[in-house]
Amino acid sequence: MDTVKKQMFSLDSYRMECGREIPVTIGFETYGQLNEAKDNAILVCHFFSATSHAAGKYSPDDTEVGWWDALIGPGKAIDTDRYFVICSDTLCNIQFKNPHVITTGPRSINPQTGERYGITFPVFTYRDMTGIQRELVRSLGIEKLVAVLGPSAGGIQTLNWAVHYPDMMEACVVVISGAQMPVLTSLAYLQAAIDVIALDPKWKDGAYNEGEEPEAGLHLALSLMNLAAYQYAWYDDAFSRDAKRDVISTSYQSVPPFVQKFRGAVSERMLPYDASHYVYTARAAMMHDISRGFASLEEALGKIRARVLMIPCTSDLLFPPQYSRQAADIINRQGGRASYYEIDSPNGHMAGVVDAHLFAEPLAAFLRGQDIT
Amino acid sequence: MDTVKKQMFSLDSYRMECGREIPVTIGFETYGQLNEAKDNAILVCHFFSATSHAAGKYSPDDTEVGWWDALIGPGKAIDTDRYFVICSDTLCNIQFKNPHVITTGPRSINPQTGERYGITFPVFTYRDMTGIQRELVRSLGIEKLVAVLGPSAGGIQTLNWAVHYPDMMEACVVVISGAQMPVLTSLAYLQAAIDVIALDPKWKDGAYNEGEEPEAGLHLALSLMNLAAYQYAWYDDAFSRDAKRDVISTSYQSVPPFVQKFRGAVSERMLPYDASHYVYTARAAMMHDISRGFASLEEALGKIRARVLMIPCTSDLLFPPQYSRQAADIINRQGGRASYYEIDSPNGHMAGVVDAHLFAEPLAAFLRGQDIT
Predict the structure, then answer these.
(1) Is A164 a catalytic residue?
(2) Where are the beta strands (DSSP E) in chain B?
(3) Where is the AB hydrolase-1 domain (chains A, B) (predicted)?
């Protein structure tokens, strides 16, 4: 695949679910070629902490590739010799400090004031995100997508597409996700993250300056999310206890080596992140409930016209498989067409990203129009 | 059962694993009668946030009974017509403000200084706790216990008894626990709790005054633990989402009703708790590794002479069943006698406390000397 070019999409004004209107600018990437009929496009939506960089490299020297590079490329499950693939950065993208990310959020300058928005930036929802993506897709001249798909928060966006713009895609694939954010996940990893960042004295209600950021709060918030991303045995191996190196210090502040190792891993991961963007994204994830605006979950999922494929992972601790099963059942009970393909991996929730080879084949078949039973 | 009388046990000096020696005073309760041979005693160890009040009532007007009252009493699985049952308050008992709790910890007065210990109080381990309990048991003239048992942190104490004092009990029952604190649990619910409390500006390194306590930090810490105590469907029901009541406010600070309800529940639960005792207890739980001091986990568990019954719960998110299975297997591989009885309940980890009826029969049989297969 050729190196990837980052592109930009702007709207002078977008009206959000909360009622506020703001100008938005987001980055996006594309892989493959849009055909003349403009009917070979696939939209990929990224997960919580990711960016639009779903595949390929920005330059030949890059050591890393996009997060779903295993699926997206010439001859791969999402075949860029056949499809035109789009992926955009979310609003309030957490990786605000990543030079490749283009986003609008609390750290952006409010054109009306010339100052950072801070927490005057309106709370966004993933429904807002899909509305903005729809404008991006239409700006490219595309009226109907072959598919919309994504893992985790990418699955949340996919479901929003399926429910709110039911005629704009033929197929949807919802990986490691569900129709409503589980209450446990909402409270333990999302609301807790917001509360932890807000507890940091440096948070200053989002008005912190560069270099004076609430790093302790953000580190803790990210720790919580990271600890749901895999599963028990994975953590036992990755940060293994070693009682021979435990020092029963007199002080509660001294920590054993496995804690130090984990803290170091989180600190590294945290480098491109911004705390207020983390708060807003956690908020959006927590407020995910596809039934909002409908009389019931059944009514909401009943709006879907696309073929749907739910792909959960057995050991997922953020979105356990029962939520995918429930969504598929509700869709099918109402005459919809939902398939279910569960993957089993020791990587928990992250299997939806790092073990994409486990569902590449059924995904490719599904995109080609085959049923997955 | 007669109303329960709170008793007190003191040692002028106890040498802790960390090397410090301090005077300790803890409360304890007993149910039933110690026989003449002093060979009918059972020690029950309490879980993380509990107290010595394992059964019965302090007064006839009490609305609540002890946490394992379903198991402990005349004719019950732990039959007080037959056994003399002891339960003690832990060091640094979290319910410092509970008038029935007698404990020693950072909020206690250091007799040498006349001031609260604060964080000069030495970090304790659950091994220390069992050493102190052993002195209590011996002070009652008891040389060998019929059994030691408990759920969760009570199981941790039980395993410490079994490994370090192998000749002092005939049987051990380890409920919803394991030989080492899982790394995920250690990091997500225990170290995170310590870090969250320490982040609260009112923490002041444990030197807060009454009325100026780090409540926000403690509330968050307790929230995290509470969110692992049950399991996904339980939370979905207890604090149900209701999209019709969601307000997509512009402000990140407004929370939906299910979050408010959860916060209220945590605030209520928090009333008798102390933040520094929470830190120390979280620390003790996190440092649970029965292999400490041995060449390996195998060697440690190989020290056990007692019959052992492991009782995990299928849906446990703090100590998933594989940890109990692993401990039982290691004991049996080395010629020990470990049985395994898994309960299935929608109550997750808490089933070991609130669903005791699910294992009352095998427990009673096991205490009577029968094998559980």
Answers:
(1) no
(2) 7-15, 21-31, 41-44, 72-73, 78-79, 84-88, 145-151, 169-175, 307-311, 338-340
(3) 109-352
